[in-house]
Amino acid sequence: MKIITLYPSAPALSPICLGSSTFAREIDQDAAFALMDHAVAKNLTLIDTAATYSAGRSEQVVGAWLASRRPDPRRLIVATKIYPPYTPEAIDTAVTASAKRLGVAVIDVLYLHKWDPGAETAAAWQALDRLVKSGRVRALGVSNFTTPQLRAALALQREHGLQPLRVLQNNNNLAVRDVDAPLVELCASHQVAIITYSPLGGGFLTGKHRGGVEPGSRFDVAPGHQGVYFHPLQERRLARLAAISARTGLPMPHLALAWALHRPGVASTLVGGRGPQHLDQALAAWQLNDSELFAELETDPVEGQA
Fold this sequence. Notes:
Elements (H helix, E strand, L loop, with lengths): L15 E4 L9 H13 L4 E3 L8 H13 L7 E6 L5 H15 L4 E6 L9 H12 L3 E7 L3 H14 L6 E5 L9 H9 L3 E5 L20 H4 L4 H4 L2 H17 L3 H10 L6 E4 L4 H10 L5 H8 L8
Parallel strand pairs: 1-2, 1-8, 2-3, 3-4, 4-5, 5-6, 6-7, 7-8
């Protein structure tokens, strides 16, 4: 795999990185600390959080861990995301608040968490450019952007001579695929690294919700995820995964993780969870790299077939 770094002093991206959306929501601080400790022990090089995760509490948990463990910045990247609006004033306020919660003077990677009309204004990108040039942020990224939205952002940066985007973070798994060939091509042509998230579709691809939403699961705690997955196409993709799992004897999560971890053009995949075992599950799945099996998994079944 090509070695990808997001800024000059950053470590290379590990193929699996740690997502923190469960922090202060499904797991408490002690469990989150154990998960981050395990990630570092396994040489994962990025921890990802966001201002909206548990209304900022995830950032606070990551910040408390950083203060306690003081990891080597040459071995670990901490990324966070800010939500609209993307006016210069709102961006400055949001970055100040995130840095305070994280307890850092400099944010390694700052994402716009989702597209918004403000992301197509020169003023927003000029504000972000100032953050990098003033040393408050090391690298810029966007999350949940389509190919046209990313292309427009890159064009604005180029037109105004601004700091370029270094990374895109999108949902991508067997059920919901937000990283396609045109997006991969655009990112490659502009040297934008792709990081994907939710390789198990919030638990959808484990099959545990086939009889209804499992109590206490992410779909139960954060019901907004349900609307992304419970549709006929996604259900057919799940059935195909279950059928191939039954035939091969490989667990559904193992197959789904392996497929997501080996997507062409993807630099890294975020894996979250409630304990170290979820990282170990992903690390084990990384060992499976079977292009023929992956092609079978991703071929969409027609209606009525698995």
